[in-house]
Amino acid sequence: MCANYYCNVLLYTELSLSVSTDAAMSPKITVELLRQLRQAMRNGKYITEPIQAYIVPSGDAHQSEYIAPCDCRREFICGFNGSAGTAIVTEQHAALWTDGRYFLQASQQMDNNWTLMKMGLKETPTQEDWLISVLPENSKVGVDPWIIAADQWKNMAKALSGAGHSLVAVQDNLIDAIWEDRPPRPSTKLIALGLKYTGLSWQDKILSLRGKMAERKISWFVVTALDEIAWLFNLRGSDIEYNPVFFAYAVIGMSSIKLFVDSKRLLEPAVRAHLELDSQSKPELTVQCFPYESVYTELQAVCAALTPKEKIWICDKASCALTQVIPKVHRSAIPYTPFCLAKAVKNPTEIQGMKMAHIKDAVALCELFAWLEEEIPKGTVTEISVADKAEELRSQQKEFVGLSFPTISSVGPNGAIIHYRPLPETNRTLSLNELYLIDSGAQYLDGTTDVTRTVHFGNPSDYEKECFTYVLKGHIAVSAAVFPNGTKGHLLDSFARAALWESGLDYLHGTGHGVGCFLNVHEGPCGISYKTFADEPLEAGMIVSDEPGYYEDGSFGIRLENVVLVIPIKTKYNYRNRGSLTFEPLTLVPIQLKLINTDLLTQKERDWVNDYHRKCRETVGAELQRQGRKEALDWLMRETQPFV
Amino acid sequence: MCANYYCNVLLYTELSLSVSTDAAMSPKITVELLRQLRQAMRNGKYITEPIQAYIVPSGDAHQSEYIAPCDCRREFICGFNGSAGTAIVTEQHAALWTDGRYFLQASQQMDNNWTLMKMGLKETPTQEDWLISVLPENSKVGVDPWIIAADQWKNMAKALSGAGHSLVAVQDNLIDAIWEDRPPRPSTKLIALGLKYTGLSWQDKILSLRGKMAERKISWFVVTALDEIAWLFNLRGSDIEYNPVFFAYAVIGMSSIKLFVDSKRLLEPAVRAHLELDSQSKPELTVQCFPYESVYTELQAVCAALTPKEKIWICDKASCALTQVIPKVHRSAIPYTPFCLAKAVKNPTEIQGMKMAHIKDAVALCELFAWLEEEIPKGTVTEISVADKAEELRSQQKEFVGLSFPTISSVGPNGAIIHYRPLPETNRTLSLNELYLIDSGAQYLDGTTDVTRTVHFGNPSDYEKECFTYVLKGHIAVSAAVFPNGTKGHLLDSFARAALWESGLDYLHGTGHGVGCFLNVHEGPCGISYKTFADEPLEAGMIVSDEPGYYEDGSFGIRLENVVLVIPIKTKYNYRNRGSLTFEPLTLVPIQLKLINTDLLTQKERDWVNDYHRKCRETVGAELQRQGRKEALDWLMRETQPFV
What we know:
The structure is a homodimer.
Chain A lengths: L8 H6 L16 H10 L12 E4 L16 H6 L7 E5 L3 E5 L4 H7 L5 E4 L8 H8 L5 E4 L6 H13 L3 E4 L4 H5 L12 E2 L2 H4 L3 H14 L4 E4 L2 H8 L1 E2 L12 E5 L3 E4 L8 H6 L12 E4 L4 H10 L7 E4 L4 H6 L5 E4 L3 H7 L3 H28 L7 H13 L4 E4 L4 E4 L23 E6 L1 E3 L2 E2 L2 E6 L5 H18 L3 E2 L8 H10 L9 E3 L8 E6 L14 E4 L2 E4 L3 E4 L2 E8 L10 E6 L17 H24 L3 H10 L5
Parallel strand pairs in A: 1-5, 3-4, 5-6, 8-13, 11-12, 13-14
Antiparallel strand pairs in A: 1-2, 2-3, 7-9, 8-10, 10-11, 15-18, 16-17, 17-20, 18-19, 21-28, 22-23, 24-27, 25-26, 27-28
Organism (chains A, B): Triplophysa rosa
Subcellular location (chains A, B): Cytoplasm
EC number (chains A, B): 3.4.11.9
């Protein structure tokens, strides 16, 4: 699935022609809620002095891409449930900023108490400018410091203070204060992953971290990203849909480990044993457990005990609340944490697990496509029913845990909506006449998958084949690229586009994102995109997606996505001993030959497709055989005939 | 010529194995100079309170890439004359920071009063850290605010104040104060360029600027870059070698034009007429002339007369002195000025001029190569004599003004030194056994050229041919690339490297830089580089170089450089009506066929070479004919035989 953080606002504006919208699209009535919120903004119970505006950002306290229902505060107050948007309520006004993907949806979900601020349009003011234009002099603007990142706080505070206002941290969240039936914070069962899956014990991860801390003279590291905590402790949860993470913080010192998590979760004997909570470990490898909420006071205590020269690492995307606990002189804000980087480079066990997960995933998809060939002519297969069937088939595979993101299952024109999710009122039937795009993936105990295939069950037009072939050429150009060690992913992005560009075509999203190992399907800090942020150099063991596409609004969408592993490659020469890298596809699902115009391929590209299909046959074929899935095996053999 | 601002310090470190060094390499004796400088640092004549350190940067008051002798203050104080370096003198210490290109040279040119700070090495402190480590508490660090850019000042001031020190602006330059025989600031004759060369009168450029100022509600624009001032007024000078610019400032308002320049230069009747100094122009198009030095006080006067909401544009790379004249509330600092952008997009007259200049330049080079073929077997041709001959042949061409940069003329291993400049003690003789690389260019009244060819006069080895062919493939991949309007140059950089990467090879400089039209051979804001700064989107009319290379230390260097024009191209499709672009080579000098391994070329690449050579024949051949340069014409016809 394309990482939406690689697209910018303007780009979404261009893509906003038609977006999927929710079933019940009548606006939420917010008169009473706004009255209550405004009352809270003056209520001494929450604030010492009344505030004139209150900002409600989208995120949670961990700056997660996906959030839990209890954190959907912006949706609660305004009704708009898209993935991105910020609400601001003043005494007189209520406004919501969102980007082009969501203009229609937001306008349908919000009542007329709300003004929609269309980001990316020239006439739309920024939040700062708007606040300055509507606020009385010397206003106070409140925000929950837990759900605003430190860098965002800094910018907003600067803009407001420049105009005579001030940004104030309101410790009690005012939405929570008026949200009567707010769901509780999830506290799902934790799964402890053994070395079989992780390859590295959490103790070794701690020791490796401490080595890096010692090198940089760092005393403590505050871990706030949920996937980093899950990765560190080799634990998984299901607090957030699709992301096997759990709500927690960790504060790691040179001789202590503090884990902040709901204590109920630690009653489970397997988890206790995994964390060695009841055994006599070495003191510096003993996990001290604290309630999730006590991270603030514990971090204060840690800071109070620092000697003048000691430093604490914290990511500059961490919450303002936690960042500001650390006095500036002790704070070392970093764009990527050591865990973010370490997690991105998979170890041999994780690589093996990712390979196994992709084979199982391919088995499920081969079955799905074989089934589709049978069923489509009956005219009863819909976008939703394919998505359901795909999930059912995946769930039959060993170590299946759940999906890694909502399945994008799209027929014809729906395929042109890049983040389409089929809903009853948009649901189309698959036919022999239209392209079908399915972008889906799963979480297995041993790995995470994410694969897109575009197929046609009848006779594709020459134009569809031509476009598909350009996308394939781009996919191959990246997948087969050889590049020096240390190359950043953005330098490969144009390889994916060259064939499309040559004919005047393009796609408006990045080419690839990092993929976690039984973790988030989107992870930093590497990727392949024309955008150059969040882009650490590629190194062997990193795993990214390779997913160029082409979209024609109102007609069709094409995307071809494999998850690929960065591997070393021996080249003829070795300039300055730098060594070279290339990619190995982990995804092993046939690419529909019917959609390829072979005249447009070079011999090298034809060889690549044949090699790829040979590997699909060998690896996935053997597993289909083992699982006795005869029809899918027949389908696989038919679909992987080599070109002559 | 490769733009060195596209390379970073680490990169240079890697390239520093062997560098060209100056003839007389005995160190400058600086005991007495340092004594005088330290005296000045305490002298109430220059400063109100003694300063404990004085920073001597490299640049001039206009942040020029090349500087005039009177601005070589850092060289004066420490002896080191490389193009990059900063000297800092405290009461006890004297230290010079420079990068890997210059470690050897600096160590040879400086006496033992100086500590060489090798930038890019881990153990080397930054200037800020070093100052903090050596200064007594509450120190004052002085710098001439005219030769430090506003953004550099900001960073240095912040670091120092964080450690309890302060950065102070010393208005009188302390080096000038002790530099007895300091050369005067050049004030060369100005040349007025008519519409025949410029295509746009300076009045129209002013009106166009005012349109942009009105759009953004800007009242004034302070122009400090010398090439922008030359471009604006359609005037050229020769104050700085190779760069046809002159020392000046301009401050442009919505109804006034203030030019700050040595008044003697305006006595020339042609210049007076050109600027309409003596005629009754409209008041808003009347140029008011002021002495160069009065820009500070005049800008103060402009600022004093501003209404509260008025804003002034100034580039964030302008000098700290001039930037700080503008009160913050009125200052709108911009990364690129409107002139920088406007100048980069050449108008039809400039494009025509650039084409003509490149034809004349090609005539000179064809003659040079024909001459070399004759002369080399005699064993008397050296790197220096070829450079001289090239200049002589260019100077025979109409409208020749001078070289656009020092000729890089390098035989065998010298070719691996990317910015090599032959000196008597490094001068090698051209032979039939080694590769020869010549990177050279000239200023003509109608345009600026910059071309690199690598040739072999005997039998190149298979390996040399292989490497040359990869470089050629990279050159063609960029030159023939088709890409959407609005693409940034850095997205094309990998195209130039793909063939080298495939074999494990690479080169450690950018692929292209912007080129001025009878202006600086390196200009922003576009380019083609793996570095992503200074990189505005490419648009039709921009002119850049395309110069991949391959360098093998101690053996040879290969570079193939054409100057290319960005042009629109009609593609089969036109996604979202964005339109597409490609490049048209302006440089028309044969590429040596002998060095090409045609087996490594695709048919498309072979066609490109044939087409290119056909164009050389037609265009340059006709001019050689017209000029009656028979031998060069014969050489051209021989060297441009099509592949079969």
